[in-house]
Automatic annotation (TrEMBL):
It is found in: Cell membrane. The keyword NADP does not apply. It catalyses: [GlcNAc-(1->4)-Mur2Ac(oyl-L-Ala-gamma-D-Glu-L-Lys-D-Ala-D-Ala)](n)-di-trans,octa-cis-undecaprenyl diphosphate + beta-D-GlcNAc-(1->4)-Mur2Ac(oyl-L-Ala-gamma-D-Glu-L-Lys-D-Ala-D-Ala)-di-trans,octa-cis-undecaprenyl diphosphate = [GlcNAc-(1->4)-Mur2Ac(oyl-L-Ala-gamma-D-Glu-L-Lys-D-Ala-D-Ala)](n+1)-di-trans,octa-cis-undecaprenyl diphosphate + di-trans,octa-cis-undecaprenyl diphosphate + H(+). It is a multi-pass membrane protein. Keywords: Cell cycle, Cell division, Cell membrane, Cell shape, Cell wall biogenesis/degradation, Glycosyltransferase, Membrane, Peptidoglycan synthesis, Transferase, Transmembrane, Transmembrane helix. This is Probable peptidoglycan glycosyltransferase FtsW. It comes from Mailhella massiliensis.
Amino acid sequence: MKKQPAPEPEMPFGPVDWWLLALLLLLLCVGLVAVLSASGPISQRTYGESYHFFHRQLQTMLLGGVFVALLCWLPRSFINKLHYWGIAVVVVLLLLCLLIGPVINGAQRWLDFHFMMVQPMEFARIALVMYLAYFMSSKQSMIREFSRGLLPPTLITMLICALLVLQPDLGGTIIMLAILFFMCLGGGTRGWYLAMVLVIAAVLVVALIIVEPYRWARWTAYLEPFANAKGSGYQIVQSLLALGSGGIFGVGLGGSIQKTVYLPEAHNDFIMSIVGEETGFVGITVVMVLFALFFYRCYRVALGQRNLRDRLSAYGLTLVIALSFLLNMAVILGNVPPKGIAMPFISYGGSSLLANMICAGLLLNYSRTMRE
């Protein structure tokens, strides 16, 4: 009888990665200042005072801080028991969005809890990552098989994607498919199967764009935004104008013209355009450097895990933040059509901020078992 290898000893828990925590706090401070500046005009028009969105963002940030503190010290054994529960909860919440969620701008993506509007998609990304990390690590003996190694996680992901398509939320669907692809890549799935997943995902996204007129309009606006600068290309054009107006050093904090009446969602999806206008190339570069250092520390955390499940979990949580960052930057630069993806830690939005802070809290937890 073949002798079973002895289990790897559990890594002792040490202090959190203080560099990662410091970078998180810096990004949150940048976001708070950006929301304060970008949201003033729309807050004044909507609520009669300039600080409504700033106060809401500060409250959410404080709540997120509580989550970060708790998650830093939560036992790893407890975290590892939540993979199926997480999927079940987000599926129920996504179904509730379709059944009782308010219709906002033609979409049912939110649940109204009176004290806060919750967008379950933001938390579905975390649940999917934790499930995929469990599956990829526990099924290593069959991960290169199609029926047992690729099909189950693909079906779970497609269930979530189907609920997102019904909302409709194409941006969220693309992120879920991207998470599946990169988690399979990190988990050791065959290259042939990965290519197949990529082709299926591309065909699905193209089909979803073609069948919906507003998505097709966004696509054509992306190709030629200035051809219809007052119609479908309006957001991209105004975003580029804001970035161009900033020059090298910007027009100064609070001095943005685009945030007044020109750029929709100035405090949300397009907040980096306002950052670029007010602080210029220098300000944008500083924010990019902070994110680069943050992702480098996340990479160190993931690479430093001895346990495969922990390594994949940290890798996936980094993906959640990084994909949102890359898509948001691509949108404001006109490299992809508008997707409704918030900039992590910077954009206004309760669900997005809480979800990203939960990711950061879990990464800080994993940093406590990081090998140097």
